[in-house]
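step=predict obj=Trans-acting enoyl reductase family protein n=351
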Amino acid sequence: MTWMIYGANGYTGRLVADLAVDRGERPVLAGRDPAKVAGLAVPRGLPYRVFDLADPDAVAEALRGVEVVAHCAGPFSATSAPMVEGCLRAGAHYLDITGEIDVFEAVFARHEQARRAGVVLLPGAGFDVVPTDCLAAMVAAELPTATHLDLAFHATGGVSGGTLKSALEGAAVGGRARVDGAVRSVPLAWRRREVPFPSGSRRVASLPWGDVSTAYRSTGIPNITTFAHLPGLDRVGPRSSRLSELVMRSHVVQRLGRAMVGAVVRGPARVTRSRSWVEVYAEATDSEGRSVSAALIGPDTYDLTADSVLRAVSALRCEPPAPGAHTPSTAFGADFVRRLHGVRIIEPARR
């Protein structure tokens, strides 16, 4: 039995493939472009398969003999569902690196199908959302009475084209938060606060992040807001947020934006990633005013993602959780993030 990287010729897929080779792994590389997939696989001496996700029968056939699929081909709003369907038909475990709330919700909706098929579905096996999900589970375990959860991150370094294309789609939706157990639409930057990151306090503003979906399933906490420290985000007001949503919903704007990103964005170089890092903060509070917080520092988000994907693949092959749809922490425990290279945890503290 073997495992596959689909979308291996993309920016993150290539990082995963190269790290796999460095660690002595021989995954099957796959994608829909014959020249690009072969150009990546042949010099590395790796097997490869070429198939499009449009035909469910073809996907299931291409996954024959594959134990785990690491799905790295975005935008996941378009590619996740057909790959999940193929994995269910083929009996292959599925993981991806999405950060899209609606994709998480769609995958979790297939829990019973996955359970019956004996398949694990694990969306968000990279930076979205392993560090935030594991920290959320840590603070929730320390405060079982928590009713509110704030999760924030601060990342340095550049972004890939795939990340920007997903961000373009997300901008058309606007803000999202978990309110009283349900995913709600809210204005972008509807909440602002100071966060004591390990490197110092920073002003953050709310934005839609995958944990709006995943952290609820990991912790059961009914009110969840996700934040980031991003230049200019804390200056976004309700009026400008609504205007930007209207503009970004235009099919013309979306099409031009994707074309521009595809033409000019290549993703951060190795030297840039080596100088970059990410910080994550989690804070749970309850109705009595008690709170528990924790934080972590890790390497560049793309390097963290590649490492996390490989460790998740290994875990799914050697010690898979019960079949069904999982978050990283429900699959492998909150301490999964401690296995990642270069991650340092600031342990939970009560107030």
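step=describe
The longest strand covers residues 277-285.
step=end
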